[in-house]
Amino acid sequence: MNQSLSIIKLGNPLLRQFSYNVENIKDEPIQTLIDDLIITIKTTNAVGIAAPQVAALHRLFIVASHPNPRYPNAPLMEPIAMINPYIVDHSTETVKGWEGCLSVPGIRGFVPRYQSITVEYTDRNGDINNVKLVDFVARIFQHEYDHLNGIVFLDRVESSQDLISEEEYQKLQNSHT
User: Fold this and answer.
1) Residue 6 within any structural domain of the chain
2) What is the pLDDT of residues 78-96, one digit of tens each?
3) What would the pLDDT profile of 65-80 be if each residue is shown by its tens digit?
4) Is residue 8 part of a domain?
5) What is the 3-class SS of the chain, one letter each residue?
6) Catalytic sites, residue numbers
7) What is the pTM of this model?
8) How far apart are CA 142 and CA 86, in angstroms?
């Protein structure tokens, strides 16, 4: 039976390790992990989650942008499992945007990311996909991709001035609506 998984938090050494390629995508444990990650996204109001965040060092994450209390303006898309992903190309332009992370609760960072990226990944059926992602969905991909390499968004902020509490972030969001 599928379940929501426990999220490991900053300080757990697994968050800082490099993840391994998934060799057998169709294996039942990998397919179950994908389903469990999708459930975890739904139960936590996340827009993405990487396998290392649930202590599984696989190069696998889910991108599942949807409006929710944490990201009210997120575009709606179906959850996509991205296995052994990588960035093929990226724009020269970067854009700063607010990011949070289930593994770094209570803090948001104003993080620079490429505005558009072309990525390649294998989906859960074993098919290779090559797609261009822009704006918020590109940001999600880059955030989750970092997790596969032991990087968290705190490593990407340019200054400690670019960090705020989740509470202050919510006040900021509410003042713009």
Assistant:
1) no
2) 999 999 999 999 999 999 9
3) 998 877 888 899 999 9
4) no
5) CCCCCCCCCCCCHHHHCCCECCCCCCCHHHHHHHHHHHHHHHHHCCCEEEHHHHCCCECEEEECCCCCCCCCCCCCCCCEEEEEEEEEEECCCEEEEEEEECCEEEEEEEEEEECEEEEEEECCCCCEEEEEEEHHHHHHHHHHHHHHCCCCHHHCCCCHHHEEEHHHHHHHHHHCC
6) 144
7) 0.95
8) 10
CA distances from 38 to 28, 65, 68, 97 (A): 15, 11, 15, 24
Q: Is residue 1 part of a domain?
A: no
| Mean pLDDT, range 54-62, rounded to an integer | 98
CA atoms within 13 A on the CB side of 174: 7
Q: Which residue has 């993080």 as its token pair?
A: 111
CATH at 85: 3.90.45.10
Strand order in the sheet with 104-114: 94-101, 104-114, 163-165
Confidence (pLDDT) at 147: 98
Domain hosting 161: range is 13-175
Domain count, the chain: 1
Quick one: what percent of the chain has pLDDT higher than 90? 88
- Is residue 23 within 8 A of residue 42, CB to CB? The reply is no
Query: Is residue 171 domain-resident?
Result: yes
Residue 9 CA to chain centroid, in angstroms? 14
